[in-house]
Amino acid sequence: MLNFGEAQQRVLAMAPRMGAERVGLEEAAGRVLAEDVLCPVDVPAFDGSVMDGYAVRAADFAGDGPWEFPVRGESRAGEPLDALAPNTVARIFTGAPIPAQADAVVMQEHVERDGDRARFTRKVSAGHFVRKRGDDLRAGSVAVAKGTRLRPAHVALAATVDRAWLTVMRRPRVVLLATGDELRSPGTPGPVGSIAESNTLGLAAMARRAGATVAVAPLVPDNLDATMQAFEAALADADVVISVGGVSVGDHDRVRPALEAIGVQLDFYKVAMKPGKPLALGKRGNTVVLGLPGNPVSAMVTFAFFGVPLLRAMQGDGDPLPRAWRARSGRAMTREPGRLEFARASLVREGASWIVTSLENQASGAVAMLARANALMVIPAERTELAEGEDVEVYLLEELGA
Ligand code: AMP
Ligand code: MG
User: 73, 114, 196, 228: which one has the fewest Cβ atoms less than 10 Å from its Cβ?
Assistant: First the structure.
């Protein structure tokens, strides 16, 4: 059985790269940038005031105050004043360009105004309340680097440097297929023993959050021919085929034999993790196949650690793996060693610490527990017990996209 870290590396190594496409800025959040976005001019483009007040020349404040100067002109955003004559000051507002010759701004609360004269009682130093040209970004520098998954702040920055569109990586096309004779669509009737198919709903939402477009294939019954045909159809139409269920070694598990029969090269089919031991990775041509276990918690947890990073890597994301945080275990535990465990857990703040407590029901089908949890707590494979208060790794379900 492959260990978890090795399996994750094999998935990333198998990721084919998507091509690029252009999108308008309003479409760009969440996509991965396929170019370096350069800053063509200094940002900000001019020295500006960060206060409402008076533009002054610091050199005019010689000797001891107070100082009094005539107010000559006004500079406001969109309507700047060209220059300031010596021994005069100008009214200025936030965001307005600093007039030539002026080099500081005095906030209006510190100025006594009397008709066209202004009186100052505090000395002024050059540069005060001036936002310098190029303070934020220099002309010619990289504003947003290739491989960045674009957050709203990156999109706003792209607009700031006058871009209306960006080149991003194409979205991978995912086809999801659910296997199992017992499955029916949610909200439809079925015989005793049938269950509502839930995995493709959760997985489709996760895949979309990871940047993919998703199609869900019709339900696949547990027979070899139907399973082979379903995979053939999916492979023709996808960059990644994700199946759920039927990947174990029971009498009715058809996924592995079907994949082998249609020429998918299997890389692995078992990972030493809990939940989610049966898990298949394969490839045919440029299309990746991920066979997830059918239990709903196993399906979503394995997709979070293998499927989401795969989709991100395919989009050129330089940082595709989820990030672990640290917390203290809220209780002592004993367990059987052997597999790396991701326990569904509740993470709360207590004083200065984050406390993570595993939920009572850790069954791999207990999807209510996954919904109630906000974190997965990591228990290393070889551990047989965990002390209360012990330092552990946790993943946030929100960050895992689950
Ligand atoms: P399997 O991996 O096919 O052995 O399925 C393991 C368990 O997960 C069984 O109890 C199945 O009924 C259940 N299951 C499999 N696929 C789904 C699905 N798409 N939605 C909900 N439950 C499923
Ligand atoms: Mg099944």
Answer: 114
Site residues for ligand 1, CB cut-off 6 Å:
178, 180, 182-183, 195, 197-199, 244-246, 248, 293-296, 365
Report the C-alpha dihedral over residues 44, 49, 52, 53, rounded to 10 degrees. -170
**Residue minimizing CA distance to atom 8 of ligand 1:** 295
Show Cβ contacts of residue 188 under 8 Å, excluding neighbours closer than 6 positions.
Answer: none
Looking at ligand 1, which residue's alpha carbon is closest to its atom 15?
294
Name beta bridge partners: 220: 179
Beta-strand ranges (E) seen in 64-179 are 67-75, 89-92, 104-107, 111-114, 117-120, 130-131, 142-144, 165-169, 173-178
Q: Nearest bound ligand to CA 245?
A: 1
What is the chain's mean pLDDT, rounded?
96
Q: What pLDDT digit, counting tens, does each position of 88-116 carry?
A: 999 999 999 999 999 999 999 999 999 99
Chain segment 309-367, per-residue pLDDT in tens = 999 999 999 889 999 999 999 999 999 999 999 999 999 999 999 999 999 999 999 99
Total residue length of the chain: 402
